[in-house]
Each structure stands twice: as C-alpha cells, then as structure tokens.
Amino acid sequence: MKVLLLKEPKDKESGPDPYIQELGLYGFEATLIPVLSFEFVSLESLFEKLSHPECYEGLIFTSPRALEAIKICLKEKSKNEAWSKSLKQKWNTKPVYVVGKATASLVEELGLTPQGEESGNAEKLAEYICSREKSNSSALLFPCGALKREVLPTVLREKGIPLESLTVYQTTQHAHLQESLSSYFSQQGIPASLVFFSPSSVTFCLQHIQKLSGDFINHIKFAAIGPTTAKAMEAAGIPVSCTAESPTPQDLAAGIQKALHLHNCSVPK
User: Fold this and answer.
1) In the prediction, which pLDDT does 265 show?
2) With bands split at pLDDT 50, 70 and 90, how would you rate the model's confidence at 264?
3) 256, 223 in Cβ contact below 8 A?
4) Contact assessment for residue 126 and residue 133, using Cβ atoms and an 8 Å cutoff
5) 200-233 tens-digit pLDDT
6) Pick from 225, 221, 268: which is nearest to 240 by CA?
7) Residue 237 to residues 85, 210, 222: CA-CA distances in angstroms?
C-alpha cells in the first residue's frame, strides 16, 4: 500500500529518510514530496545575539530550520572559531529548550544539550518552560520562522516570562510542488494514506490534491504529524484519520497502520 508524505527530505548527509524506512517495515511503499522552500534572513543579527549569551536566560527551538540558520552562520571560519572556543560552552550553562526529537538531535550536533524534547508540540513545550523559568529573568532567545504560531509566545507572555523572537527564515511553496504532485498521482495513482507535516503543507497542497484525486479523495486516509497540523486539516475540511501520538516515524507508522485497519500486518524482522 502506498503512503504519500508531504514533507521536506532529511538532510542528505544523514542517510535515508527515517519516515520512509519505518513505513517500509510495515510493508508500506512511502514516497516523499517536498512542499516548502526556505529563505534564510537576518543571519548577521542572529549571530550577533548568539555572541552575547550573557544577555539571555536560554534558547528555544521549535523548528529544524532555525538550527539550520545557525549552521549557515557557523560556516564562516571566524564565527565557527568563536562558537567552538567560548560561545558553545557559555550557552551550555543555560537551558536550550526544544520541541521534539528531530530538533534535539540538531541541537546536539551544535554541541549543546537540549531539554524538553518529549513535549512534541508548542503548547506542551510552553508548559514545560513555564515550570522552569521565573518571570523576573532575562529573555529567552527564540530564533523562528515568519509563519510561527503564537501559542508559545502567548503562553510565556501570560506567565510574564520574557521572550525575544527573531525571524531567521521565511517559508514559501516549493517551486516543483505542483509538478511533483501531478507526476505522483499520474504514475502511482491514489495513495492509501497521505500525511501532512505542517499547517503550511495543508495550505499549499490541498487544492492540488483535491483536483488530482477527484472523486477518489474519499478513499484516502489523511494523517497528521501532530495536533497543530490536525487542527489545520480539520479547519480546511479534511477528515483526519490519524494523528501521530508524538512526531516520530514510529508513532506515525503505527497510527497509519491502525487507520488502515492492517492489524494483522506482520512487521518484517
């Protein structure tokens, strides 16, 4: 059975995409179509702020792209040296909050120690931060995207916890999205399940999917990577057959298997 994943591919350097691998263990034939393109902005400003850890209480990351922005900064030799010699150690004396395991592993690649990765979404991460931070502290630095949701900033503001957001990337539709979707549906047919990985993927893809699948759209089991995406799907009128319990390949694959009623499907050893 075929599963279509509307997400960005994992970094080429780190091997095959874990979602494709995990779904393969359940006997699913998964295909990935990139939905979004990212343009990085304010990188000088970002590194300027990272150069002054003494001004901040800690860091917050809710997107792999924000960490990618830091990696781009560190490609410059002088910045990389400053990071390795002193900045990394100074930031490591402060909390580095992350929303999930993917973000946590990227934080570790920078030599920092993440916390909060079990949260899985912005609401739970905000609660986690509020349980640890005081309202009279310095601001937490939050590199983020232009389309960030206001959940985390709102919760922290209500609790009086200072937050300094900095937009470091902008999100646009991938240049080849329409072409890739058309090619998939004409060559592979209607997938048994289709997974949205972000509210933006719902915005950019839904119209194309409705057009390409026609009356067969009711045959597709739509899945969400988390509650935020599920809400966006419901708001757009898409029936949500399953939401991953946490945003991991294992939970998504298990959720899709259940939604497709493949309880007797044996996982290859």
Assistant:
1) 41
2) very low
3) yes
4) no
5) 999 999 999 999 999 999 999 999 999 989 999 9
6) 221
7) 52, 11, 11
Give CA–CA dist 160/136, Å, rounded.
8
Type of residue numbered 39: E
Task: Return all residues near 68 (Cβ < 8 A) that are at least 6 apart.
Answer: 38, 40, 106, 169
Residue 81 in tokens: 């040296």
Q: What percent helix, strand, coil does the chain show, rounded to 5?
A: 45, 20, 30
Q: Could you tell me which residues are beta bridge partners of residue 30?
A: 3
Beta pairing class for 29-33 and 114-115: unpaired
3-state secondary structure of 242: strand
Q: What is the pLDDT of residues 119-171, one digit of tens each?
A: 988 999 999 999 999 988 999 999 999 988 789 999 999 999 999 999 999 99
The DSSP line for 80-134 is: HHHIIIIIHHHHTTS-EEESSHHHHHHHHHTT--EE-TT--SHHHHHHHHHTT--
Gap between the Cα atoms of 119 and 126, Å rounded: 9
User: Distance (Å, rounded) from C-alpha 175 to C-alpha 160?
Assistant: 41
